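So, does this match?
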Amino acid sequence: DAPVSCVALRKSGDYVITLGTRFAALKWKDQSVTTIVHVDKDKPNNRFNDGKVDPAGRFFAGTMAEEIRPAVLERHQGALYTLFPDHSVVKHFDQVDISNGLDWSLDHKTFFYIDSLSYSVDAFDYDLQTGKISNRRNMYKLEKEESIPDGMCIDTEGKLWVACYDGGRVIRLDPETGKRIQTVKLPVDKTTSCCFGGKDYSEMYVTSACQGMDDELFSRQPRAGGIFK
């Protein structure tokens, strides 16, 4: 009855998901979904977008307005939330356009976050004990050809990887210097997210989208909407 935007594993087995504007528990075997908390109730046009579990097991996820077409939507309707293991929810801030990529530094002292239409990757101080974030600052501003920052992950060297929607690439950033240190181009424009996988986590998986593409563009990029390794 609503789009699923992100999925996380639970210690008890099964999954916690974001479904529309709800945090919910999913039991795979009996295909049952139980609502945990409903957010943004006053905004029926909103939905969750990206989310990730922090190093202490809290589930961070943010919302956005439903898009009219890709990256076109009512501005400043979203917010960033945390679902705690006791099922309480904290709203960190609102006025978000498209809540997107998120991850934590290897020492857990910094939280990285993307609001896509700000065209930047931001950093916050992170308190692992409480899950509080503070001292927001810009870490990297995307170049014109990199287009819109989307999903993000961190590698074992503490460098960030950001999928660039409409930029056809994944970029690697050094949070210490705020500089781009690598660009990996893909055969599709609408790269949406990235994560590490494989036996020793040395492979990167990159997702892409094909919504909003006309036939002409699709004929030039037949692999749009695919997952790449």
